[in-house]
Amino acid sequence: MNNELPIQLYKANAELQLQITRLLQESGHRWLEAMQQLSAGSVEETTARIQSLQQAADWQTLATLPSEVFRRLYQGRVGDAQALAETAAKSQSAFVDGLRQALTIWQASVSETVGASGDAASFAHLFQPWTQPWSAPAATPQRKAEK
């Protein structure tokens, strides 16, 4: 048995953990940016409402402000929901792609390490079912359709 095997496996696992941590941090950063943009839009909207209120000169204008504000709020929230859905889809896609890549690199590192110890074929066979969903992204929807 190779004396370097334990340290090489430990390094491969540590690298995988760090890659997953990085992916989670990037995902959190994307969400933070989306929330900052949403918040900035809300501040601008509130400022516009305050200005409308200050410019109202009579009761009739003041009476129409709530309906105008409601309409603007509704339109803005629909746009916000669409932007958040788009952010969620992009974030999830980037996370899954990064995770797939990290797992592929991890598998290659571990296979190479175990291969150097002389038992690569059995190791690759052992992990094949576990890594198959990550290496074939198109296979998942077909499985759901078959059920």
Q: Span between N and C termini?
A: 44 Å
Helical fraction equals: over 70%
Mean pLDDT: 78
Write down the overall geometry. rod-shaped
Rg on CA atoms, Å: 26 Å
Count of discrete structural domains: 1
Beta percentage is under 5%
Sequence stretches where pLDDT stays below 50 over 5 or more residues: none
SS element count, helices: 4
Content-based structural category: mainly alpha
What are the secondary-structure elements, in order, as H or E?
HHHH
- Care to count the β-strands? 0
Assembly state: single chain
For the sheet with most strands, the description reads:
none
Task: Give me some keywords for this one.
rod-shaped, mainly alpha, 147 residues, 4 helices
What does this protein look like?
With 147 residues, the chain is an all-alpha fold. It has one domain. 90% of the residues lie in helices and 0% in strands. The protein has 4 helices and no strands. The longest helix has 58 residues, at 59-116. The chain is rod-shaped and about 85 Å long.
Please summarize what this structure is.
This protein has 147 residues and is mainly α. It is built from 4 helices and no strands.
Write the layout of secondary structure elements.
Blueprint: H1 5-55, H2 59-116, H3 120-135, H4 139-146
Helix pairs in contact: 1-2, 2-3
